[in-house]
Amino acid sequence: MFRRHIGWIVTCFAILCFFSRAGQPGQRPKSKDRPRVGSQQPIDSSVTNDAIRVQVNLVNLTCSVVDKSSRFVTSLTREDFQVIEDGVPQQIKNFARESNLPLRIALLIDTSESVISKLKFEQEAATRFFSTVLREPDRGLLVEFDSGVTLLQDFTNDVNRLARELKNLRAGGGTSLNDAIYQISDEKLLTTTGRKAIILITDGEDTSSKYSFDEALEMAQRAEATVFAISTNKAAFFGGGGHHGTKNGDRVLTQLTEDTGGKVFFPAKADDLDMTFRQISEELRSQYSVGYISTNTKRDGTYRGLQVKLIDNKRLRIRHRKGYYAPTG
């Protein structure tokens, strides 16, 4: 009798152990630890979303400030600036003097037949400019454009390489100004970090581009490049009198530079190129960097107008790009 009870107890115990182990497999997580399919509980991704939002919507501006004598003012602080986007005031998050921040300079030289007599002056002045402005973290590239666009030297800090390619400039046929701006902005500047500047030496007349002026301007704006232009339209630049180029060329260069926060220069003669390059170099080392997170979080790709004001400094003048294109996707 006792043995039959013992056997029955052992059998029951074995059955209980079997079902207990089958219901609790040690290799799988408990149901409360597993994510539920179709769960309505929101995922806490605030850190990730905030990081993405700051990265995508951070707008950076480069500003130049001059007094009534056109001398650069470099002693202003964050509190002196106010940024307005499409009429809405924005809160400045980042502020810095640009004097030592890395530069990415694209020098685009018009080598069409109309400038053949002054190529030598341009080559020598550009070489001295690179020698003066490029420091260790900076990079410069060189492009020539006539009926086509040719990258002679990619981004480099080696002034000798840039000088060597400058000596190889040769005059060609037409003028593909828009193509040069578009291609360099799209292929070289759009994905490049740092302060980005395009320097043009041209008469502003386009004769052979497949891209329009508006397309070239938009791409330069998307690349956040500041455009400086050196007009060759003064006839004295070519050793003559009067005006060599057309007013349309000057209008093109003026709009291009103003919309991107740069400036157009009109040297009276080729010998003035050195002075012009020195003025550009000084401006590049006298700028302010202003950054803010846009209150408009829409990723609609629209153009947004910008205005930067100086608080209680009405006698000073400020120059900056007029707007930017919002991200998409």
Overview of this protein structure:
By secondary structure, the chain is an alpha/beta fold. The protein has helices at residues 2-23, 46-57, 119-133, 159-167, 177-189, 213-222, 247-260, 273-284, and strands spanning 58-66, 81-85, 88-90, 92-97, 103-110, 139-145, 149-156, 195-202, 225-231, 263-265, 288-293, 303-310, 317-319, 323-325. The longest helix is centred in the first third of the chain and has 22 residues, at 2-23. The N and C termini lie far apart (81 Å).
Percent helix among the residues? 25-40%
* Domain count: 2
Name the CATH class of the largest domain: Alpha Beta
Number of strands: 14
Total of helices: 8
Radius of gyration: 31 Å
Shape: globular
Annotation keywords:
329 residues, alpha/beta, Rossmann fold, 2 domains, six-stranded mixed β-sheet, four-stranded antiparallel β-sheet, 8 helices, 14 strands
